[in-house]
Amino acid sequence: MAHIQVPDGVPGIRSLVMFRPESGQYLYELAQLLLRGESPLTEAERELIAAYVSSRNECVFCMCSHAAAARHLFKDKKQVVDIVLDDYKTAPIGDKLKSLLNIAGKVQKNGKEVLPSDVQEARKQGANDREIHDTVLIAATFSMFNRYVDGLASFTPTDPKAYEEMGARLGEKGYVLPKQS
Amino acid sequence: MAHINLPEGLPGIRGPMAFRPQTAKPLNELAEVLLRSENSLTRGERELIATYISSLNDCFYCQHAHGGIAQHYFQCDINYIDAVKKDFESTTISIKLKSLLSIAASVQKGGKQVTPQQIEKAKNQGATDFEIHDTVLIAAAFCMFNRYVDGLGTWAPQERDIYVERGPRRAQEGYLNFDLYK
Q1: CATH number of the structural domain spanning residue A161
Q2: Using the beta-carbon criterion (under 8 Å), do A20 and B3 form an inter-chain contact?
Q3: How close are the terminal C-alpha atoms of chain A, in Å?
Q4: Is A65 an interface residue toward B (CB < 8 Å)?
Q5: In terms of residue numbers, what domain contains A139?
């Protein structure tokens, strides 16, 4: 049961933004811009970073929903998502994405964990300023979303099918503020 | 030197916001609604939560920028803010605010660290669902802002007086449509 009175049966962050749309609208605007707006990183890559950070923060709702979105967007390469969540270093992804996931993982712990050598490695692998910026901001943003979702003990579905549907919706429609019930 | 090429001379979060204004917009709108909009928690209380979280995350810029603003609202001196950061239980802030800061401290560690007992204690002190919601979201949001500021290796002026001196102006101008360069 959530720590506050939110709409019944509505999962995760959706229940929270329905409780408080005044702040929820900006959370959704940020998610839409960061994960679906113009970026040198693909939407699939950005969802993968989000899922990765969420798994490190042990937020089941966020990890499952964004992993599902990433699988939807990776299409026939979707198996890469679970390999990354298990151990990105061995995943069949490019070295640039690996270097960005390394940075994201450090941001998840604390911003100061990101060292010049981490950034240097990312640049060596071809990452530009914008890609590094977006990686840091996505990791920072999910460090917020994960704490918000679990901090208020919002409802976390356990059925994988529920997340598959969420993933397809997120993949197709992006982040649309839910209407009040 | 920051990890990426940010516009010159902008401290803390201002550099990254100037680098990418499109994402700065919802970040600032979020700060404005959370910290300054109509709320049963005072602006001072909310800035204090932000300051406290930023000190737990060891983010120099954020804790001093918001500490300076909190100081203005509380009309107290810098030692009072320092005392809250160090050990809020021993200060004269309200028991309700202490119960909310405990919840915020748990959020900083991880969402699941918030216990039903902490929530009950806050409710027993009169905290409403809105106040608990906002405490958790402010704490979570500052875990984001602190990581953004430090994750990009931004610089910040080290003289604490600067932040105290600017507190009143920052409190007045708010988080929307302010000049990044002033």
Answers
A1: 1.20.1290.10
A2: no
A3: 19
A4: no
A5: 42-173
The helix-helix angle for A79-87 and A43-56 (nearest 10°) equals 40
* pLDDT tens-digit map of B17-52: 999 999 999 999 999 999 999 999 999 999 999 999
**Dihedral of the alpha carbons of A132, B153, A84, A161, in degrees to the nearest 10:** -90
Q: Which DSSP state fits B38?
A: S
For chain B, domain boundaries: 14-172
Specify whether domain B14-172 bears CATH 3.30.420.10.
no
Domain count, chain A: 1
From chain A, the residues in CB contact with B27 under 8 A are: 30
Kindly list the residues from chain B whose CB atom is less than 8 angstroms away from the CB atom of residue A145: 140
ipTM passes above 0.95: yes
The answer to whether A25 touches A175, Cβ cutoff 8 Å, is no
Q: Which strand (E) or helix (H) includes residue A142? A: helix A129-151
Decide if A146 is inside a domain. Answer: yes
CA distances from A24 to A19, A27, B16, B24 (A): 8, 5, 23, 16
**CA gap A42, A51 in Å, rounded:** 14
Q: What is the pLDDT of residues A45-72, one digit of tens each?
A: 999 999 999 999 999 999 999 999 999 9
Q: Has residue A32 been placed in a domain?
A: no
Q: Which two tokens stand for residue B99?
A: 């119960």
CB contact set of A109 (below 8 Å; sequence gap of 6+) = none
Largest CA distance in chain B: 49
In degrees and rounded to multiples of 5, residue B77 shows phi and psi of -100, 175
Q: Tokens for A162, please give them.
A: 């529920």
